[in-house]
Amino acid sequence: MAKMQYAVIGMGRFGSSVASALSNLGFEVMAIDSDEQKIQEVASIVTHAVSADTTDEEALRALGVRNFDVVVVAIGADIQASILTTLILKELGVPKLIVKAQNELHGKVLSKIGADKVVYPERDMGLRVAHHLISPNILDYIELSDDYSILEIKAPAQVVGKNLKQLDIRARFKCNVLAIKTGDSMNISPYAEDIIHEQDTLVIVGKNEDLTNLEITYAEG
Ligand code: ATP
Which residue intervals define the domain RCK N-terminal in the entry (predicted)? Predict the structure, then answer.
């Protein structure tokens, strides 16, 4: 199977980070920005770097963006340019469009005009940092949908030495332990009898409000 080809529009902090990560993973990446300076900065990292105003349909067509498997639109501050670019890409028939939104309203518009996925990097990172602040035991927090998330938590003292049956996380918090990480090994189908050791990490899925409940209970010790 041919390798996926990506185009990333907007070489701000987010867009350039997506472009260089994809490039480091071995994929072909075309980076596009209206700012020539930005293009020069990424030219040595990506496969192709071109300067173009993506609100210009002809310019986009000429770049052949339609032939890319995935296009990421990472234009932030200029919401109008972000929306116009998305609309044009959709009309050109890009198979998969991922667009960065500045806020909820911007995100709603992007979904309505056909963005396949809308991402909110600042909001998501803020959320993760906030959860880490609640307790340093919280290692990660990933939103699955508006209502459900996955929490990665360092085994708090009160669970060490107990098994999943004794902890009864399902009944107490309505959450499910997906995996237990011990050092480099990962138990991805934990049994009720599996004991939690010191330094283990638990990966838990649940409704946001139930996870918050669990976090607060375990953060208090
Ligand atoms: P970040 O937070 O990721 O740094 P941002 O949300 O502040 O980015 P901007 O800096 O506003 O986003 O935009 C990212 C890039 O998009 C900029 O380098 C800008 O030059 C580019 N850009 C803006 N409008 C267009 C356009 N019409 N065509 C092509 N590139 C554009």
Answer: 3-119
